UniProtKB/TrEMBL annotation:
SUPFAM superfamilies: RmlC-like cupins. GO terms for molecular function: isomerase activity. Residues 106-125 are annotated as: Disordered. It comes from Marinobacter daqiaonensis. Keywords: Isomerase. It comes from the Bacteria. Gene3D superfamilies: Jelly Rolls. This is Mannose-6-phosphate isomerase, cupin superfamily.
Length: 125
């Protein structure tokens, strides 16, 4: 999917339909919107974004969020807030795909980035 240029999106529906690990769907000067799908047993991978705040909105599946020293369960309707400079990782703890959308402020990935799997994402970084 190429980046969209519309200003209103059915984002929850788009996140539920997404099967790619990472799909950048919109990039502005200060914010980026990304769909993510984490397979059963998978994870985003521990990381720290310096200079980037991140919000993750969960729409399907069950997961575990680690932000700094805190570890909590996440489920549809939850949002995780990752301030700049905080260690974080998100793991699929359920038996179905963990689906979410996330915002980066400022943008983290090149506009239009698509990674079908975590392995592709890791190789691209």
């Amino acid at each position: 999917m190429k980046e969209v240029r519309r200003t209103t999106l059915p984002i929850v529906e788009m996140a539920r339909e997404n099967t790619e690990f990472r799909q950048v769907i919109w990039t502005g000067d200060n914010t980026q919107l990304v769909l993510m799908a984490i397979p059963e047993g998978g994870e985003i991978g521990g990381e720290v974004h310096e200079g980037h705040d991140q919000l993750l909105y969960f729409v399907e599946g069950e997961g575990e969020a680690t932000i700094g020293d805190t570890r909590v369960a996440v489920r549809p309707g939850d949002v995780s807030i990752v301030p700049s400079g905080s260690y974080h990782n998100f793991r699929n703890a359920g038996s179905t795909m963990l689906k979410l959308y996330t915002t980066y402020c400022p943008p983290e990935h090149a506009p239009g980035t698509e990674h079908e799997t975590k392995q592709q994402a890791d190789a691209d970084e």
